[in-house]
Amino acid sequence: MTNRHPYRFERGGRMWTTLVLLLLGATMVSLAESNHWVMELFAHFRLQYLVAAVVALLISLLTGQRAALVASLAAVAINGWFVGNYVLNIGVQAAAAPTEHPSALRILHANVQYHSQPIGRLLQRARAEQADILLIQELNNHGASVLSTAQDYPYRSLFPQEHPYGIGIVSRTPVEVTAEQDSSGLYTFLTARIPWGDTKLNLVYLHPPPPLSAQSTQIRDDLLQRIAARVRHSTKVLVVGDINNTPWTRSFARFVATSRMRPLRNRLPMGTWPQWLGFEGGFLTRLQIDHVFTRNARDIQEFRVLPDIGSDHMPVLVRLTSA
Fold first, then answer.
1. How much is the pTM?
2. CATH no. for 105-320
3. Do residues 54 and 69 make contact, with C-beta atoms less than 8 angstroms apart?
4. φ and ψ at residue 15, rounded to 5 degrees
5. Where in the chain is the domain with CATH 3.60.10.10?
6. Alpha helices in 106-213, H assignment, sequence order
7. pLDDT digits over 166-205, tens only?
8. Distance (Å, rounded) from C-alpha 135 to C-alpha 142?
């Protein structure tokens, strides 16, 4: 029995080193994301890689596994750079204290999941948050018919579809809304001019496809760059939506650089999808794909990921002031 222990420890060490090398391998594949859409899929999990690499580093230190120690240290360094750059330089928190302001404007975004359409729960949440404007994605005809009965949101621009790319805006006050198509003609995005104090807020609301093929990835990236070029010189502007992209990819970084806008974030990056995976807030287990981009964080009083409404996405609320 005593003679077996070194062998078992050695075999366990090899297995541990293999696992850590797989983690480093996934990290290295993610660095080649521009070469193929499949490689980009690896890039969406950099936060999870970082946490796993930190745990692996500690275990490797305690067990004296040198190869695993070097591999985990490399994974920490690479993924830590991406996450740190987002937290420190790219993402921005609400600048003002979350207190009431006379001209506050509350905007609630929700992807209601094409097959679920929890419009009743969405309206309950919107009323509880005193939302002025609801932005809805994956809206189908049934969901649109339910929204049409909401008398406290009488101004509606709804473009339902019998597929996951219906979209709409409902409001307590009049809003100028224009519907446009992406270059493929398959995806509708909305532009809106919203009364906001003594001025108007320009809002772009979009829902490009997920990166599940070369074509859909290109459509997503083309639409993001089209919007980025459009809002680059705007002042009072928000870009909102489930953009099927996370803060860790190069295409996300290109959008931020071209648009000269910054994504709002909580103190920690809080994921919004999938709802069922993880604890409320989804710091480690959900992906952050529902975003709000702003030109000026001083306009933002509050940004929150809201509780579950019965969709596969968590809704988000942004509160602005024109002070």
1. 0.91
2. 3.60.10.10
3. no
4. -65, -40
5. 105-320
6. 119-128, 141-147
7. 999 999 999 999 999 998 889 999 999 999 888 899 999 9
8. 16
